[in-house]
């Protein structure tokens, strides 16, 4: 938990509460929230208009209200060796509850959960805690992390999620070590598709929610690398009626926020599409959205990559070298073109998330067909094309933009 490269943008909170506390800055990362232990059904049509008072939110949520003692027992009194991660909100602890009664059980028995505990001295406050309960307490989808319950007792604010054993996409892309092996091309495309389906569900006519903080640290993975969106503290209801956007103070994470949102505070579903484009580019390149440790001119991933993405002969320079031999050139070109379209400076030219889902599904279908036909020849062609273009570039035959 904690992305040292992310800089938080000043935030406002969409909720009114009598017990709001502190700053509304967001935490930048987390691990282990969520598991495939709970079945998630798609549901949005029954969700009432977003309530605004704390009482309405807590009363309308479909999750369990835990006591502080129950969660203290399930996490072994929040022992340090139970910590799954740290963030602006506070710490996330590993715990255990009975799968049927949801009562606290002895460590190692029952179902594993992730318990996020608000740090009273942290950057996040009661309002974002309430936003999580509001949205995840009513929305169900296979690509959203499941909120099991919450605790609101005296000064204590906690959230209880299904456990996601493989942690965040951020860790798998950027952390080095034996525990985090580089994700294969196929797994990256699977994760991209799952995350896209989660956003498409939020943007649907029945739900109309803008996520507003899509980034690799908020995409969690279950044991089968199924992606689920987590951390809804910045989520906001989309525009209604004849309104084209929602006006807010700018909030989110630098490197992921859409340019028109940064400039005007006008928030639309296309703001999420831009953020998705950044994450897809991170997955294709293996680079962070913002990385000050890179050479000058390469700190901002989008600014560095865009000139390459516009060239069919140079786009491969953006691709993660650890993925060589795992993709077809046609598939890689289509994925790069999709990222570029999502990153359009003009929001009108970005696809909808439904269109993104369709494009990624087609990529998966094409990949399966290619693998079934001539996988060995395809991989030889990839390496040959990569090496040939590399030699031509070094010889000065390729211009920066073609």
UniProtKB/TrEMBL annotation:
BP terms from Gene Ontology: defense response
SUPFAM superfamilies named among the record's database cross-references: Protein kinase-like (PK-like)
Residues the record lists as binding ATP: 116
Bias (Basic and acidic residues): 377-395
Bias type Low complexity, positions: 30-47
Chain spans, region Disordered: 15-58, 366-402
Assigned keywords, A-Z: ATP-binding, Kinase, Nucleotide-binding, Plant defense, Serine/threonine-protein kinase, Transferase
GO molecular function, one term: ATP binding
Gene3D superfamilies attached to this UniProt entry: Phosphorylase Kinase, domain 1, Transferase(Phosphotransferase) domain 1
Comp. bias intervals (Polar residues): 15-27, 366-376
PANTHER family documented for this protein: OS01G0588500 PROTEIN-RELATED
Family assignment from sequence similarity: Belongs to the protein kinase superfamily.
Protein's name in the database: non-specific serine/threonine protein kinase
């Amino acid at each position: 938990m904690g992305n040292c490269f992310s800089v938080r943008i000043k935030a406002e909170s969409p909720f009114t509460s009598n017990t709001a506390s502190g700053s509304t800055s967001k935490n930048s990362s987390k691990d282990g929230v969520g598991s495939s232990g709970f079945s998630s059904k798609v549901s949005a049509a029954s969700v009432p208009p977003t309530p605004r008072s704390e009482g309405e939110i807590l009363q309308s949520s479909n999750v369990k209200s835990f006591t502080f003692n129950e969660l203290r027992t399930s996490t072994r009194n929040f022992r340090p060796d139970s910590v799954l991660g740290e963030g602006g909100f506070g710490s996330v602890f590993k715990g255990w509850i009975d799968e049927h009664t949801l009562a606290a059980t002895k460590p190692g028995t029952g179902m594993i959960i992730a318990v996020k505990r608000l740090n009273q001295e942290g950057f996040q406050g009661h309002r974002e805690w309430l936003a999580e309960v509001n949205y995840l307490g009513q929305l169900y989808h296979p690509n959203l992390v499941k909120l099991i319950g919450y605790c609101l007792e005296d000064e204590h604010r906690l959230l209880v999620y299904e456990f996601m054993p493989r942690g965040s996409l951020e860790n798998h892309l950027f952390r080095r070590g034996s525990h985090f092996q580089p994700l294969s091309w196929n797994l990256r495309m699977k994760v991209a598709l799952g995350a896209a389906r989660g956003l498409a569900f939020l943007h649907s006519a029945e739900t109309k929610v803008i996520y507003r903080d899509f980034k690799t640290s908020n995409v969690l993975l279950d044991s089968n690398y199924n992606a689920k969106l987590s951390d809804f503290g910045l989520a906001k209801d989309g525009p209604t009626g004849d309104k084209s956007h929602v006006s807010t103070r700018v909030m989110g994470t630098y490197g992921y926020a859409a340019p028109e949102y940064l400039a005007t505070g006008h928030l639309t579903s296309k703001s999420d599409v831009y953020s998705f484009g950044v994450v897809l580019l991170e997955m294709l390149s293996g680079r962070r959205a913002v990385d000050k440790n890179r050479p000058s001119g390469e700190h901002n991933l989008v600014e560095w990559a865009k000139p390459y993405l516009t060239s069919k002969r140079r786009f491969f320079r953006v691709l993660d070298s650890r993925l060589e031999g795992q993709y077809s050139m046609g598939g890689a070109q289509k994925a790069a073109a999709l990222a570029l379209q999502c990153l359009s400076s003009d929001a009108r030219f970005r696809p909808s998330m439904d269109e993104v889902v369709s494009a990624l599904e087609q990529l998966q279908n094409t990949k399966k067909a290619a693998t079934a036909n001539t996988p060995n020849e395809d991989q030889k062609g990839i390496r040959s094309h990569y090496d040939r273009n590399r030699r031509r570039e070094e010889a000065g035959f390729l211009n920066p933009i073609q």
